[in-house]
Amino acid sequence: MAVTFSKWKTPIKEQDPEVRRSNFKEVCLGYSIEEGMKEAARCLQCKTKPCIAGCPVAIDIPGFIKCIRDGDMAGAAEVMNKYTNLPAVCGRVCPQETQCEELCTVGKMPGFEPVAIGKLERLVADWKYTQEKAAADKAQAASKGKVAVVGSGPSGLTVAGDLAKKGYEVTIFEALHAAGGVLIYGIPEFRLPKNIVKMEIDAMQDLGVKIRYRYGYWQEHNDAGDHGRVRCMLHRCRRRGSPFPGRTRHYAERCLFRKRIPHKDQPHARI
Asked: Residue 211: how many CB atoms within 10 A of its CB?
């Protein structure tokens, strides 16, 4: 069978280096729908679907790519929604080159680059969030029960979204003043804009997920008691040492790590 598509991924627009060196805005600007359809046409729609085996959440990758190819963005978003709660985040920061794209059949062909699966995932998610907000697919009216999730990082958000879709009443208890965990505090704006994380979290709240902020472990342990199940999705951050002299002095610690951390007696105190 003659190959009729490009060996190379469809080029994607980025900020000009002369412009981006003076700002912290996102570097990659994403595909247009037309560019996405062109890239989606490179997918072979393999019967074995090896790319799915490389995806941590087993998204039906050929399924949503076929929808993009056919111009059915709503269909692509519907496929994606079945498998992931953070498509706009994963489309930007997930290491596709060592996961789904590494197993892509097109990429195994001599001289060919794999399909840009991550960029296509981002396209679908960004398209979804630019549409007029439809009625959220809330869980069934009769809740299956209450679940408390401790921590609002990627794991906590994922399990909260999945449980809400299954009909559970979910409350997330977060120690800090904003949800997102490493997505907010660990990834720079030019790689993952904060407004993208906020859109994902807002979509989850539209499903009925509640988030309670500034809760320390002792508060979470007590207040989660009326929930039937508790899921702990904690990521403990370990501070890295600094090489400069005087780093162990108390005032240096205060300057370097001025972060809102709840205390048992002073919930809003700063260290």
From this structure: 20
